[in-house]
Amino acid sequence: MTSQDTAVNTGTGESAADSPVIRREDPLGSIRTMAAAHNNWGRWGQDDVLGTLNFIDAGKRVEAAALVKSGEAFSLSQPFDTNGPQKGWRRRTNPVHTMTDTGVDAERGNQGFPHGFGGADDVIAMPLQCSTQWDGLGHIFDQGKAWNGRAAGDVVTSEGDLVTGIETAAAKIVTRGVLLDVGRALGPELGRNDGELPDGFAITPEHIERTIALQGASSRVGRGDIVVIRTGQYTRVRRTGWGDYAGGPAPGLSFSTAPWLHRSEIAGIATDTWGFEVRPNEFDGAFQPLHQIAIPNLGLFLGEMWNPDGLGEACAADGRYDFLLTAAPLPITGAVGSPVNPIAVR
To answer: Where in the sequence does UniProt note compositional bias of the Polar residues kind (predicted)?
Structure first.
């Protein structure tokens, strides 16, 4: 038994290692079988560019707005600075923030403005997926196919995502959010009191349902919701240092959650980890196989590197786990992902 098998067999529910949808000896077959069984191609027409964001409608936004009771707001974003988690993999670096005009320039009067007017300006250079972000529908392909069965090369070229660019979602992501604090909810059953799942822990559908049951009625998940998963890994790395947060071992969703993601009809799902799904992945030699189902086949928006810690404390204090969530991507034309500052309002 490997260390990963130990991790995924800890806790309640079916072990990811024993799941019939995870055939370790046949990763490609498992992925193809899952994609065929759980697929939304054509569901909203052949020209669709929004995928599961179609589940968010005006009525859903009205429902979400009614959840605001105290007006308390939480940013679910990590910082965007040079102290971030990135280590350069695939040229992903941390943000570089540079001042182009400063108070020193204003004091010395060398900005060229009249009558004592002065100002400051700045610029930032960063990959679009270096901190809290959405994966767009053009980010991941399966067998050469992008969302809705389009040829990947027809969708994303050197000019960007010509079809499902992240700008198409700019006004869509305002809806009911639900925090599933898996780390805190399952901790006692796992023999932990720190609210943090261990790296390599695969969150199965049974773990999700158990968390919902423990948290109560406000945690029900339904059509058009965005689910925010707290594993506690972000809490841990902010205490101990980034380490291998970017790309290393992590708790996360099991490949076996794909059917749950499909039937729940959620609009999106975000985690406090670098890569959303459990790492190491559950297939030998695989790379992010749940992404391969969720984005190109389900059309599901995935959020990564979110920071739900403050929200989690507030939800645990009063037992209310749903809220109004606004998480608009920047309308960067042709981008396959976007930084985001999600705001939860309770």
So the answer is: 1-13, 75-85
Q: Is residue 25 part of a domain?
A: no
Q: CA-to-CA distance for 250 and 245, rounded, in angstroms?
A: 7
- Cβ atoms of residues 15 and 8 within 8 Å: yes
Domain of residue 119 covers 93-125
Q: Are residues 110 and 205 in the same domain?
A: no
Tally the domains of the chain: 2
- Report the alpha-carbon distance of residue 248 to residue 231 in Å, rounded: 15
Cα–Cα distance for residue pair 258/242, rounded to 1 Å: 29
pLDDT tens profile 5-15: 333 333 333 33
pLDDT at 247 over 80: yes
State the distance between the two ends of the chain, measured CA to CA, in whole angstroms.
Answer: 44
Is 41 part of any domain?
yes
Tell me what the mean pLDDT of segment 135-151 comes to: 98
- Reading the block at residue 131, the tokens are 């901190």
Residue 69 CB partners (closer than 8 Å, separation 6+): 320, 346
pTM of the model: 0.92
**φ/ψ (deg, to 5) at 186:** -90, -10
Rounded CA-CA distance 252/72 in Å is 28
131 in the same domain as 120: no
Cβ(152)–Cβ(137) under 8 Å? Answer: no
Better-predicted residue by pLDDT, 1 or 92: 92
Residues 146-160, mean pLDDT to the nearest whole number? 98
In this structure, the strands spanning 226-229 and 252-253 are unpaired
Laid out side by side, the sheet with 73-75 consists of 73-75, 343-345, 322-326, 174-180, 226-229, 268-271, 301-304, 133-135, 337-339
Spatial neighbors of 125 by CB under 8 A, at least 6 apart, are 95, 96, 98
